[in-house]
Amino acid sequence: MTRTRRPVVAGWFTDDGGGAGPGGAAEFRLLGTRCTACASVFFPREDGWCRNPGCPGGGTLVETPLSRRGRVWSYTDGRYRPPAPYVSDPDAPWEPYTLVAVELAAEAMVVLGQAAPGVRTADLAVGMEVEVVPGVLDGDDQHIWTTWNWRPVHARVEPSQTTEPKERS
Fold first, then answer.
1. Which residues, in sequence order, are CB contacts of 20 under 8 Å at separation 6+?
2. How far is CA 29 from CA 14, 26, 56, 88, 133, in A?
3. Which of 53, 80, 101, 139 could form a disulfide bond with 73, CB atoms 3.0-4.6 angstroms apart?
4. How far apart are CA 133 and CA 107, in angstroms?
């Protein structure tokens, strides 16, 4: 059965095109919005009004791709299964994950996201350059739920680390 790739949150990043080749990792970007009146950039995107209290008003919010690279501002790991209402399969083994807060200098903001599979806290350092790459959050019988991950620029993800989740039985 062919599963459909779906973003976890529509409109927050470009289509990953399956993660390789044209439209894939090389072009993958987070999508924010920029106010034409004050040039403030927002992520998650804001489509209603400018959130900058100092904005003179009168502008519109336009979609803008965010920088592909930034610097680690902070990081940590999650070593336990979060309690409800977090949704997870209680029968599946828990795997720790790494969270990375990345400063995007051009946008003057910090964006939080999971590190790419295989990236541990020991692989990161504050100030290290990282890049946004397509990721897979989860999957079911019908969908592969896509998201973004942060990966150190010098790192290359092994093919086994980008595999899609197995279908659930």
1. none
2. 6, 9, 29, 27, 8
3. 101
4. 18
